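Morning, I've got a small favour to ask if you have a moment. I've dropped the whole record in just underneath, so have a look.
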Amino acid sequence: MSSVLAADYPSKTINMVVGYAPGGGTDVMARTIASYLEKYLDGSASVVVRNRPGAGGQIGFSEVASARADGYTLGTMNLPAALAVTYDRNADYDAESFTWLANFVADPNTLVVPVDSEFESLQDVIDAAGEGGSRLTVGLSALGGNDHFAATMFANASDIELNEVPFNGASLARSAIMGGHVDMGTMAYSQTVGFEDELRVLAVFADERIEQASDVPTVKELGFDVEMGSFRGIVAPSGLPDDVREVLMAALAQVAEDPEFLAVMERQGSPVQFAEGDAYEALAQSQDQIAQHIWETTPWK
């Protein structure tokens, strides 16, 4: 797109591609951002969410990566899952296939147990795992994503062994945890919201305690240098013209500061951690390195 054309941007509908089905956390975030993005693009264009579910999000991520880099196709990005799939299959994109605009959500993983579990602290889990015999089971929404990586990284850091049990999605994993079918889980914090009477969160895999659960310690403060979560943001195809990129990033930055938007995100249980441009790309590269390391040391397929 020439700078002359970019000066008119946006002049038509912007499509925001979501690689997951309607109603999930990523879809809800996308629709929330889209409504406020329209506002901060001065109402000059509509932003329409297009769901392209399938293959663990790969269909949607691929569509964004292969789209024309003109600012009229954006996409949601899920880290580390989106880049993890580039190791366990022949994906037609990688971290270089996108223009990294802005991350909005940093939803940390948790170590969570049934509310009636005998485990009341992280140390209880470590002690039980160190007693030998059958390994403790940890429920995961899937292999090759943040739940899986959190469990693997924690087991390595604490020198314990866990039996990882993948399910077909977070809701099934949560049901298994609540029902005591597995000993614990490493689900994202937002997926525990509303289930406080059935789940006990022992720790969060974040650098600092999160505001929504300020009484829950971090794994790091308990002595284990592990951070993992579900990072959700907005990307465009690589090669986006600088002037279009600047328009979008300025509008997305305004969205991230909008009090109404922040209130909506809080009600959704989605911790906002805004990172734009180079900082977002650095986050993506770090998540890619984690996925690559785990794939090379303990491949999941």
